[in-house]
Specification:
It is built from 5 helices and 7 strands, in the order βαβαββααβββα. With about 160 residues, it is an alpha/beta fold. It is globular and about 40 Å long.
Length: about 160
């Protein structure tokens, strides 16, 4: 498993990271987003959605609906899950998340709430506020398989611009 730790200096850098990730996504991919409230999970998810579905003007957080589905002009549907309000991992199964893992691109906020149901093939993205408590974010990306190439490219592309 490859791991990369980045410090992103502002929301724009978080959005750039989202655009890099979005360019690699295909059906069956899961991006697992974790971190505390206000860390930037939704900023990253929205950047990915805007890249994949540029026609989307309003990208609400699925905090209350639990899932939002987007249909890009080309490619698989993109499903944005927010599991913050779930009481147990089994609750996610009622959302049809297992089927989405097969046919769609899935962005999953609060992914740790999936417990054993989180696919081992997911790209894990942990986002935390930076040490200076302003707009900086400490981001850790980890993944095996095909994510290794993406993580290496992000490391190269984000140097000096994050």
């Amino acid at each position: 498993m490859t791991r990369l730790d980045l410090t992103l200096r502002d929301p724009a850098a978080t959005e750039r990271l989202g655009h890099f990730i979005a360019g690699w996504l295909k059906a069956g991919d899961v991006v697992a987003l974790d971190g505390p409230l206000g860390a930037g999970k939704s900023v990253l998810a929205r950047a990915i959605i805007r890249h994949v579905c540029p026609q989307e003007d309003d990208i609400p957080s699925p905090t209350f609906t639990l899932v939002q589905t987007y249909e890009p002009a080309e490619g698989p549907s993109l499903m944005h899950f927010d599991l913050y309000r779930l009481d147990s991992p089994e609750d996610a199964l009622e959302l049809g998340i297992e089927d989405a893992f097969i046919d769609s691109v899935c962005l999953v906020e609060w992914a740790q709430r999936l417990g054993p149901y989180l696919p081992r093939t997911a790209l894990n993205v942990a986002i935390n506020p930076g040490p200076d408590n302003n707009d900086t974010r400490a981001v850790s990306l980890a993944g095996g398989g095909r994510w290794q190439t993406l993580i290496t490219e992000i490391d190269t592309q984000m140097q000096g611009v994050n």
